[in-house]
Design brief:
SRPBCC family protein; about 130 residues; START-like_dom_sf; alpha+beta; CO_DH_gsu; Alpha-D-Glucose-1,6-Bisphosphate, Chain A, domain 4
Length: about 130
């Protein structure tokens, strides 16, 4: 399954946005309002839970300064990657697009596609509000 958010403009430079997204505690600001759990575990890992969904542990698995941050699930049952693509618009603004990719069976994909799309779009929208 592959889901991409619309591109959003953030009032942070490409470098500032990269630095923001490599800090796990900052993801709390991006979470939807229906967040029930958010906890930073270490400098690369955090867990979050949304109402009606299981708690998910994410880890920063890859970075390419200043244009890419890759978060990955640490669960074998729900294996996916969430990538933040960052590009400079000018010295004070950047453009960010969130990209979700994961392997799910057809039944699971049908069940999670709509809530995942909403989640990815909410992350992007909240980046645009920073």
């Amino acid at each position: 399954m592959h889901i991409e958010s619309p591109k959003v403009t953030a009032n942070k430079s490409e470098q500032e946005m990269f630095e923001f997204l490599i800090n796990p505690k900052n993801y709390e600001q991006l979470m939807p309002e229906n967040k029930e759990v958010f906890e930073v575990r270490d400098e690369k890992t955090f867990v979050f839970g949304l109402k009606g969904m299981p708690v998910i542990k994410l880890e920063i698995q890859e970075t390419r300064k200043p244009e890419l941050v890759v978060l990955g699930s640490t669960s074998d049952k729900f294996d996916f990657k969430l990538k933040a693509h960052i590009s400079a618009l000018n010295e004070n603004q950047s453009e960010v697009q969130m990209e979700f990719s994961g392997e799910f069976n057809a039944m699971m994909a049908m069940m999670v596609k709509k809530p995942l799309t909403k989640f990815i779009n909410t992350l992007a929208e909240n980046i645009g509000k920073l």
